[in-house]
Write a structure and sequence with these properties.
gluconate 5-dehydrogenase activity; 7-stranded parallel sheet; 14% strand; 256 residues
Length: 256
């Protein structure tokens, strides 16, 4: 197989959580451009379908689904539905996440619980539901988790203790599932983005520059489009001998 052909996702179905905007929307488009039929989820059906409509307008195969990743029963139902309609889930991208700022001595317990429920429990529920399908079908597949460089560093300029803990856990869960599911032909990897400009992360604003942009070796923020090719690699045969890896994409922020 020619090297560029190993990146193709033609004939595969990819499920991307939290895909209506920001990083998830960018990753869904990249997977679609690589040839996958993409199932996009969001917490409202309207948002998921609107994002899917945008991809279809680009000539890509996409469908939207309502999904709260903290609801295990709903996760199981949506994964089963996507599997039936797409011939089985070949690729799962666990992107859904939240980040709520606040000092540890000031935030309510609800912030901690909601953050862990979305960022960690959601990865757990979705990964198990998809892996069960992959094992039953005997087809294997690829799971890509969206972690963060925040698993290694302390976010600035605001305190986010729950977010930091959740992303560190995602990285370690990635490794544990990779080891356990490798015999089933399921590869589990993660990306660790740095500061990425999205609707929810306005790192282009002056108050963010000194803490979020200047310390990076490349002296700039990243974009969702720059994460897409990395996720396509991890989802495709281009990374056939990779599992349990956490690929840092942060413009060199964590070099110092």
């Amino acid at each position: 197989m020619a090297v560029l052909d190993t990146f193709s996702l033609a004939g595969r179905t990819a499920l991307v959580t939290g895909a209506s905007r920001g990083i998830g929307r960018g990753l869904a488009q990249a997977l679609g451009e690589a040839g996958a039929q993409v199932a996009l989820t969001a917490t409202t059906l309207e948002a998921a379908q609107a994002a899917a409509d945008e991809l279809r307008a680009l000539g890509l195969a996409a469908h939207g689904y309502e999904l709260d990743v903290t609801d295990r029963e709903q996760v199981d139902d949506v994964v089963a539905q996507v599997g039936r309609e797409g011939g089985g889930v070949d690729v799962l991208v666990n992107n859904a996440g939240i980040s709520i700022g606040g000092a540890a001595l000031e935030i309510e317990d609800d912030v901690w619980h909601r953050t862990l429920a979305t960022n960690l429990d959601g990865v757990w529920y979705c990964s198990r539901a998809v892996a069960r399908q992959m094992v039953t079908d005997g087809r294997g597949g690829a799971i890509v988790n969206v972690g963060s460089m925040s698993a290694q560093i302390v976010n600035r300029p605001r305190w986010q203790p729950a977010y930091l803990a959740s992303k560190a856990a995602v990285h370690q869960l990635t490794k544990g599932l990779a080891a356990e599911w490798a015999p089933h032909g399921i590869r589990v990897n993660a990306i660790a983005p740095g500061y990425i400009l999205t609707e929810a992360s306005p790192v282009d604003q002056p108050e963010y520059y000194d803490d979020c942009v200047a310390p990076a070796a490349m002296k700039r923020w990243g974009t969702p489009a720059e994460l897409g090719p990395v996720v396509v690699m991890l989802a495709s045969e281009a990374s056939s001998f990779m599992t349990g890896a956490v690929v840092t994409v942060d413009g060199g922020y964590t070099l110092f």
